[in-house]
Design a protein that fits this description.
This protein is α/β, with parallel strands linked by helices. The protein has one domain: Diaminopimelate Epimerase, Chain A, domain 1. Helices cover about 50% and strands about 15% of the residues. The chain has 8 helices and 4 strands, in the order αααβααββαααβ. A 4-stranded mixed beta sheet has the order 3-2-1-4, with helices on both faces. Strand 2 and strand 3 form a beta hairpin. Pfam families: TPM_phosphatase.
């Protein structure tokens, strides 16, 4: 059990999310996702969570495990070509994970996602949350463009472009 991590999670609340992601930043992220999705047929979802609750902390849930749970909870897997991507930020840990559905995951090496996460986490350490997420959206857009060109008809998945605050 990591006492420092538990303390960080207990002291990081929704106010921290609002400071890191004010309304203008959330709008910029939503617009970046919408713009990205005009260039490919994939779906990008960004979700931020202030902190884990105590039960998850006591079970030592990793950020990766939580990101996979959120991927399922938000139904990011529910796309026609299995090409949804979740960018998940756990603010208390300043840790980000990218979870890609099986259609895109089979095409892109894990190192690509890890590099994008490292870049975002570096920006977060400098308190540059908007720049970090926008860079992450750009990083996941490139493989989506390569493997999933845009459809000529409108998308039907209905996944939101608006950032999800958990």
């Amino acid at each position: 059990m990591n006492i420092a991590r538990i303390f960080r999670h207990l002291t990081t609340g929704q106010a921290a999310v609002k400071r890191a992601f004010p309304a203008a930043t959330l709008i910029a992220i939503e617009q970046a996702i919408a713009q990205s999705e005009t260039t490919h047929s994939g779906e990008i979802v960004f979700a931020v969570e202030a902190a884990l609750d105590m039960s998850l902390l006591l079970h030592n849930q990793s950020v990766r495990e939580r990101a996979i749970d959120v991927f399922s909870l938000l139904r990011v897997w529910d796309t026609e070509q299995n090409n949804g991507i979740l960018i998940y930020l756990l603010l208390a840990d300043h840790n980000v994970e990218i979870v890609a559905d099986r259609g895109i995951h089979s095409q892109v090496k894990q190192a690509v996602w890890e590099s994008a996460c490292d870049s975002m986490e570096d920006a977060f350490r400098r308190e540059q949350f908007e720049a970090g997420i926008l860079a992450g959206i750009h990083a996941v857009t490139l493989p989506l463009q390569q493997f999933f060109p845009p459809k000529t008809i409108s998308k039907t998945s209905g996944l939101p472009d608006k950032p999800v605050i958990l």
